[in-house]
């Protein structure tokens, strides 16, 4: 199976008031279609910077990124980006929010809006489509944000701390919810998170970055009893603690 994302020896430096800073250095990995890969690392190590390079929002100082065999030089409709906060517009209904991408890309056809309606029905939000974001719970808003991202049918989802704004209990439930949606839609995912447990419970593979400048310290293939074990159930399995302890030791969080 060919790689859908290929990050080749990517480095990025930027200017600060104190001079040039190297954020990431010689990052090299690939992702298969429908694979769920998490990236963890110490705070401020450059995880989100790496995601922005993959998305085409930041040009790398060195190296290249390929998406579906095409060199990344700008943003692509193949890639959907979901940020920490849901960024739903308070003055737009849920329906108007989830179809915003279709408006921006000028592809608000009957076929595409029917697809969004199906997503809303499937994931329990159709009856709330005429409500406003303030009338929804945090978990429902996050589901709406994911549906907005899926509406334009990207093949790859980039999740940047996508659940961190939620309280712990809601976060656990939403992780299960969104994992189910992503698996059903057969999307390829690269997720940045500072939460080791979250990365292990949701991923096929976890890439551990060092402190800045970030380099790949190790990669862990995550394997449980079966691919359909949901994130919450994975946390209860005996393999979970072994993965957690190994990644924890590699993170250098006390340095």
UniProtKB/TrEMBL annotation:
InterPro entries linked = AAA+_ATPase, ABC_transporter-like_ATP-bd, ABC_transporter-like_CS, ABC_transporter_ATP-bind, P-loop_NTPase
What are the residue boundaries of the ABC transporter domain, all occurrences included? 5-236
Top-rank taxon, per record: Bacteria
- One Pfam family hit: ABC_tran
Per its record, what are the GO molecular function terms? ATP binding; ATP hydrolysis activity
Coiled-coil portions: none
Could you list this entry's UniProt keywords, alphabetically sorted.
Answer: ATP-binding, Nucleotide-binding, Transport
Entry protein name? ABC transporter ATP-binding protein
Q: Which organism is it from?
A: Guopingia tenuis
């Amino acid at each position: 199976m060919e790689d859908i994302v290929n990050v080749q020896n990517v480095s990025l430096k930027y200017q600060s008031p104190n001079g040039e800073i190297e954020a990431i250095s010689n990052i090299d990995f690939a992702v298969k279609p429908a694979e769920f890969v998490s990236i963890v690392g110490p705070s401020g190590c450059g995880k989100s910077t790496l995601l922005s390079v993959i998305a085409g929002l930041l040009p790398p100082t060195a190296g290249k990124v390929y998406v579906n065999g095409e060199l990344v030089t700008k943003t692509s409709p193949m890639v959907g980006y979901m940020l920490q906060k849901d960024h739903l517009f308070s003055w737009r209904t849920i329906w108007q929010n989830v179809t915003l991408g279709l408006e921006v890309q000028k592809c608000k056809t009957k076929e595409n809006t029917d697809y969004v309606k199906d997503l809303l029905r499937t994931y329990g939000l159709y009856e709330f489509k005429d409500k406003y974001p303030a009338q929804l719970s945090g978990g429902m808003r996050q589901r709406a944000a994911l549906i907005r991202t899926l509406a334009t049918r990207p093949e790859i989802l980039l999740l940047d701390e996508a659940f961190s704004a939620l309280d712990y209990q809601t976060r656990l439930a939403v992780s299960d919810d969104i994992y189910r949606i992503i698996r059903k839609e057969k999307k390829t995912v690269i997720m940045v998170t500072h939460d080791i447990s979250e990365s292990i419970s949701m991923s096929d593979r976890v890439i551990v970055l060092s402190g800045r400048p970030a380099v790949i310290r190790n990669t862990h293939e995550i394997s449980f009893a079966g691919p359909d074990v949901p994130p919450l159930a994975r946390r209860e399995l005996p393999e979970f603690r072994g993965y957690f302890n190994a990644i924890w030791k590699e993170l250098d969080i006390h340095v």
